[in-house]
Every structure is written in structure tokens, then in C-alpha cells.
Amino acid sequence: MDRKGDFVIAEDKLYQQFVERFQAQPQVFARAPGRVNILGEHVDYNDGVVLPMAIDREVGIIARKIELPEVHLIALDLSEEVVFTFQSIFERKDKSGKPLPRWALYPAGVAWVLLQKQLDVSGIQAVYSSSIPIGAGLSSSAAVEVAFATLWSAFGGWQIEPMKLAQDCQKAENEFVGVACGLLDQFSSVCGVEGHVLFFDTRSLEWMPLRFFEDCMIVIADSRVERSLASSDYNERRATCEEAVRMLQRYIPTLKSLRDISPVEFAAYREFLPPVVQRRAEHVVKEIARVYSAVTALRNNDRRAFGALMYASHYSLRDDYNVSHPNLDIMVEIAKQLSGCYGARLTGAGFGGCTVNMVDQSVVSQFVEQLDQLYTNRTSIKGQVFAVTASQGASWKFV
Ligand code: GLA
Fold first, then answer.
1. pLDDT of residue 2
2. How confident is the model at residue 12 (pLDDT cuts 50, 70, 90)?
3. Which of the four pLDDT bands, split at 50, 70 and 90, describes residue 382?
4. Is 308 exposed, middle or buried (0-12, 13-18, 19+ CB in 10 A)?
5. What is the largest CA-CA distance in the chain?
6. What does pTM read for this prediction?
7. Cα–Cα distances in Å, from 64 out to 23, 30, 87?
8. Cα(323) to centroid of ligand 1, in Å?
């Protein structure tokens, strides 16, 4: 695989830093990519189907195993470090008894889950860095979790099924970090396939890679409006979906999740739900249907139909699910007027972060430049617009 892009983590830079800081040779390099979700937003915690791809932006860690049962981490991008032990993490503390900094909760959470599974989790010294914009909806946290899980599996000499690894990382985020996220992000980071989008059924856990339109590219536009996924908004949306299920069960006792009701059936029952619950559920039900339609559009090589589904998803997230942000709406509105843009929508949890755009390959550089410029003109914010390619899931190697 050619990993010479600008945004893969430079192993030699990490190597140098490692040797300087620890006065020793590292042994293993592990990496895990971020992801962009092309369609299927806020449906993974409703047993829905999603269509993400792993991107060529990633977390890279270089490390060596030590005999002590402790983890010494250097987060290069933050210029911060922490030491925790396999005892101290059970109290969410570092070795000296101070609360773990937020960024360290992700690797510590992964160790916490793996230890509970009685897997061999070794003490390490590690330096890591990321080229995934943080808090922008591109799964920078999931990539950290997956990269550390991959690293510990390399040192421990154990292997678990990729899907199980993704679920362990999700558990770390749910139970240790405290975000009730679904499996979308960790799955994408583990299972990414170069050149493909991933059709993933979060209920059956079946998935399949699909070739994306050959003459189209995916462009990400970071609005530079930051959001925190741990914010109560995300967990609140999830709770509302559960409430919708409980209410609908009075009429459809067999209903287990919003996945079980089609848009047509939903239309018959929606009036029994209070207005906000109704709009949230409507988004989920229709978004799941859009993912199926998108797969059909992909198979029919119908770019326009696919793009239209992306726009529809954005409007639904904006108007019914209420997770957009005015700057994301501006980003989508501008993109829609540019030539060669088939579809655009917010991606990830929303509330800020990025949009994802499907653009004709022949005009990508022009599109990137114009979107960048016009967004700054409108908002006085310097966003960041860049094309991505679909990359391989997490991997490791000896150095
Ligand atoms: C975040 C979560 C995912 C998913 C998306 C919204 O990225 O981590 O599990 O729910 O939001 O689709």
C-alpha cells in the first residue's frame, strides 16, 4: 500500500522524538485512520445502516514494551505527557494520583477494557501524534482508541476479531470516557478498505466494502467551529430515540429499535409522538432508508441520485434532528452552487465540525479553492477544505 500521502504520520519524526525522550529504541509502530461518514448519520445507535470510509488522516504511535505495569505517554501534538499504572486507571487517576487529563482517557479507557478481558496488556513507553483534526467529526478519538488497542495486541501477541476490537474500543468510549457513541467510528477505523466505502449494518454487524464512483472524490470542509462530542446533546439525542421506541411499542409491541419501522409505517404512527420526539424519530427512520437508496444509486452508477440523498440528509439533520450549525449550513449552501458538486452534508455528530462533499474529480482543486474562499468571505473564519482518499484500517509493524 502506498502511504506516502502528506497526512500519514511520519514514522521517522516519531522515532526521533522517542529516542530523544526515552533514550531507548522503540519496537512497534501502530496506526489507525479517522473516518468520514458519507451517509447514515445518528443511526448507528438505532441499529441502522451506515456508509462511512476510513480516510488518509491518522493517528500514529511508536512504542516499546517495558517490564513495569505502567504506561508513559507523550502526546506530541499537545506537548503533554502522562504516566498511569494499571491500578491508577481504575480510579481514572495518573500515577501520582491526579485526575487523568481528558486526552489520556482514550488510551487509558482501552487499557481498562482489555485488562477486564484478561488480555495481556503490557507496560509501554509511547509517543503519538495525529493528523486528524480534533473535535471536527472525523473520529479523532476513535482513531486514538483503535491505534492503542492495535499496539497492545501487537505487544501482547494476541489477536481478536476486528469487530470485537472495534467493540472493545467503543466500550472504552461508552464506559470510561462517558460518551454513549455507537460503533460507526471504531468500526471504520478498524475495518477501512482502501478505495472503498463501507456498507455497515450496525445490527447484524455484517458489512461489505463498495467501490465509490470512479470519477468522484470526497472533499471534507472543516468549518472550524469546534464541538465536543461528550456534550450532553449527543447523549440526549440518543435518549430521545429510546423514548420514541418506548412510545411506539404501545402500538407495535414487536418494535425493538427505530430500525424496525419503515418510513411508510412511521407515517401511520408519527402522530402519536410528541412533536420533538416525532421529528427526531423521523430523521432516523428516513436516514436509514436513504442509506439503502444510496447503495442502489452506487450500484446504478447514479451520481446525481446519490448526491441528492446527501443533501436530503443534511436538511433532515438541520431541521428534524437539529444537530447542524449555521456555519455548516453555509458550507453546504455554498458547495451546492459550485459546479461539479453532486452532494454535501454535515458529517459526524454535528453541532460544528465538518461537511462532506461529493465532487467530480475533474474540478476538485477548483472546488476546494472556491469553497475555502467563499466560506471565509461569508463567515470571516478560515475553514479548511481538503480532498481525502479511502484508506486501509488500522495496522502495525515492527520498526
Ligand atoms: C459520532 C458517534 C457515532 C455516530 C455519529 C453520528 O461520531 O461517535 O457513533 O453516532 O456521531 O452518526
1. 41
2. confident
3. very high
4. middle
5. 68
6. 0.96
7. 11, 11, 20
8. 12
* 254 touches 356 (CB < 8 A): no
pLDDT reading at 308 higher than 80: yes
Q: How many residues make up the chain in this entry? A: 399
**What is the rounded CA–CA span in Å between residue 163 and residue 70?**
27
Ligand 1 environment, Cβ below 6 A: 37, 41-42, 44-45, 181-182, 184-185, 229, 348-349
In terms of Cβ atoms closer than 10 Å to its own Cβ (0-12, 13-18, 19+), residue 271 is exposed
Residue 135: pLDDT band (50, 70, 90) is confident
Question: Would you kindly state where each structural domain of the chain is located, as residue ranges?
Answer: 4-212+391-398, 217-388
Nearest to 295, CA basis, from 364, 185, 201: 201
Residue burial 100-123, b: 16+ Cβ < 10 Å; e: rest: beebbbbbbbbbbbbbeeebebbb
Which is catalytic among the residues 44, 47, 168, 185? Answer: 185
| Correct CATH for 217-388 of 3.40.50.300, 3.90.226.10, 3.30.70.890, 3.40.50.1820 | 3.30.70.890
Q: Report the alpha-carbon distance of residue 56 to residue 8 in Å, rounded.
A: 6
Q: Which CATH architecture has domain 4-212+391-398?
A: 2-Layer Sandwich (3.30)
Q: Catalytic site residue 222? A: no
